[in-house]
Amino acid sequence: LPNLSTCCALHRDLALANPTKMRSRFVALLASSQSHLVSGFISPALKGRVTISSSSSTSLKSSSMKELAEKVLANPKFPPEWPFSPADFERTDESDDSIFYDQPRLVYHIDDYAVRALTQYYSHHLKDGDDVLDICSSWVSHYPEEFKGGNVVGLGMNEYELSQNKQLSSYVVKDLNRDPIFPFQDESFDKVTCVVSVDYLNQPLEIFREISRVLRPGGECIISMSNRCFPTKAFRIWLQTNDLEHIFIVGSFFHYAGGFDPPSCEDISPNPGRSDPLFIVKAAKKGGD
Fold it and tell me: How remote is the C-alpha of 193 from its chain's centroid?
């Protein structure tokens, strides 16, 4: 699997030299260690989103993609130190995020099939009584209707959206890109969730350290990811990498934050090739039973 420090160094060098060619060479380097790693492309989508899809000279069967995705974090070769630069987390639109998120968006950001798949996944991983923190939260958290959580807190950007989320016990409005420190005590939660929003967090190392801090020993962080985003607000390295590389990148966030058991990935895409893909990257806080 890829040497992340080498990849990120190449990514930065190419960004300065030739942004047009940067992504294809970055993917080629990753693919050199796993010849059947697919490359990706970015295509326009409606309502200001983009889809980053998988493409190769021969079509991958859905079972092959699932196998690839779930192997990405099986034996990753992380370098000894954080390999990313601040430029990797720059965005096209660096204006105040409170302006962008001021308008409520009471819509799903993945399709109905992926929503149902995520809710089904949560039904097996959230236990009644769990205290849950939903970061980058909005008007819906996609938890099962029958879930009876303990203290379920939303941490997000838009107060109206959060006020409409019926699964929350309470909520906090906070811009984590301005201040990544969570306003919660140590070991306050059993689970932390984040739905298709990790690509908007421009200080991920600090955020994942905070996730570790607020989780109880053995508590789990569940990051769900698809191939849709607001491209002007997603950080640079995300837009220039594909689904498999996203899994590796988010796995590295857990690794470098410290305090977590090794991360893993599950591909829960409901209808591969016909609806939105959906990947879970998760890790438990060290110290559990």
Answer: 10
Alpha helices in the chain (DSSP H): 4-17, 19-31, 62-71, 97-100, 112-125, 159-163, 204-214, 236-239, 243-257
Map residue 27 onto helix, strand or coil.
helix
The set of residues, in sequence order, having a beta carbon less than 8 Å from that of 15 and lying 6+ positions away, is 22, 87, 236
Q: What is the pLDDT of residues 80-98, one digit of tens each?
A: 999 999 999 998 888 887 7
pLDDT given for residue 59 in this prediction: 42
- Asked if 284 contacts 192 with a C-beta cutoff of 8 angstroms, the reply is no
Mean pLDDT estimate for the chain: 81
Taking the C-alpha atoms of residue 122 and residue 126, their distance in angstroms, rounded to an integer, is 6
The helix, strand and coil proportions of the chain, stated in percent and rounded to the nearest 5, come to 35, 20, 45
Mean pLDDT of 206-229: 96
Tell me the C-alpha to C-alpha distance, in Å, between residue 113 and each of 49, 139, 160: 18, 18, 26
Top pLDDT among 133 and 36 is at 133
Residues sharing a CB contact under 8 Å with residue 10, sequence separation 6 or more, in sequence order: 25, 26, 29
- Encode pLDDT of 121-156 as tens digits: 999 999 999 999 999 999 999 999 999 999 999 999
How many beta carbons lie within 10 A of that of residue 209, not counting itself? 18
Inter-CA distances, 105 with 27, 109, 158, Å: 33, 9, 9
Can you tell me which residue has the tokens 């089904």? 120
Query: Do 105 and 182 contact (CB within 8 A), yes or no?
Result: no
**Is the Cβ–Cβ distance between 4 and 79 less than 8 Å?**
yes
Helices (H), 32-74: 62-71
User: In this predicted structure, which of 30-39, 162-171, 236-245, 271-280 has the lowest mean pLDDT?
Assistant: 30-39
